[in-house]
Amino acid sequence: VQLQASGGGLVQAGGSLRLSCAASGSILSNDVMGWYRQAPGEQRELVATITSGGTADYAESAEDRFTISRGNRKNTVYLQMDSLKPEDTAVYYCYLRRLQRPFKYWGRGTLVTVSS
C-alpha cells in the first residue's frame, strides 16, 4: 500500500486548506483512513479518522474546524481545515489501516504552516 498526500502550504491564521491523500496498491473496501500531525518537537498526534462507511472521529483540537471525508472510490481521504490557527502548524500524515488491525500504512506527510 502506498499513500500520497498533498495540499499543504502556507496560510494565514483564519484561513483554510484542503489536504488530499490517495492510496494505491492492495486496498480493501473496509479500510480505515485518517490523518495524524506532528509539530516540531512534539509527538505525532491523531487529528481525525474515518471508516469506509463514513463514520468520523476527531481530536478535540480538530472538532468544529476540520472535516474528514472519503472519496467515492474509498481510496482517497480528504481533510478540510478551516479557521486555521498557528498551533495547527505541523507535518500532516495520512494513514490507512485494516479494520480491527493496529498496523498502519503511512504517507510521507505534507507541511502545513499557519502564520499569525
Give a brief description.
By secondary structure, the chain is mostly beta strands.
Walk me through this protein's architecture.
This protein has 116 residues and is mainly beta. 0% of the residues lie in helices and 53% in strands. The chain has no helices and eleven strands. It has strands at residues 2-6, 9-12, 17-24, 32-38, 45-50, 56-58, 66-70, 76-81, 90-97, 104-106, 110-115. Strands 2, 4, 5, 6, 9, 10 and 11 form a seven-stranded mixed β-sheet that branches. A four-stranded antiparallel β-sheet has the order 1-3-8-7, with no helix packed on it. The termini are far apart. The mean pLDDT is 95.
Radius of gyration: 13 Å
**Mean pLDDT across residues:** 95
The number of helical elements comes to 0
**Helix content percent band:** under 10%
Oligomer: single chain
Described by strand count, sense and barrel closure, the largest sheet is:
7 strands, mixed
State the order of secondary-structure elements, H for helix, E for strand.
Answer: EEEEEEEEEEE
What structural class do you assign from the helix and strand content?
mainly beta
- Poorly predicted ranges: none
* Shape, per Cα inertia axes: globular
How many DSSP E strands? Answer: 11
Report, as a whole number of angstroms, the end-to-end distance. Answer: 37 Å
- Bin the strand percentage: over 45%
